[in-house]
Design brief:
Blueprint lengths: L1 E3 L7 H10 L9 E4 L4 H9 L4 E4 L4 H11 L5
Parallel strand pairs: 1-2, 2-3
């Protein structure tokens, strides 16, 4: 699941925390997207359970690498 930190109503941190608290989705990877690249922002993402944190703008290669790390290839 890709979650942008800046969203209306619930921010990405709140959304990630809700996803990770749900027993059906707790093991589903959550990848946070943000233009913020500070240490505090990344740490806060980890604290709410995010699996990765990509800073915008990101490259196609970094996106595919992140997806590959969390989505096994089916053969």
């Amino acid at each position: 699941i890709f979650v942008d930190i800046m969203m209306p109503r619930l921010d990405g941190y709140q959304t990630c925390a809700l996803i990770k608290k749900n027993t059906h989705f707790a093991t589903t990877p959550v990848i946070m997207l943000s233009s913020k690249d500070g240490l505090f922002d990344r740490a806060r993402g980890r604290m709410v359970g995010s699996d990765e944190y990509l800073t915008k703008p990101f490259t196609k290669d970094s996106l595919l690498k992140t997806i590959g790390a969390h989505a096994p290839v089916r053969t």
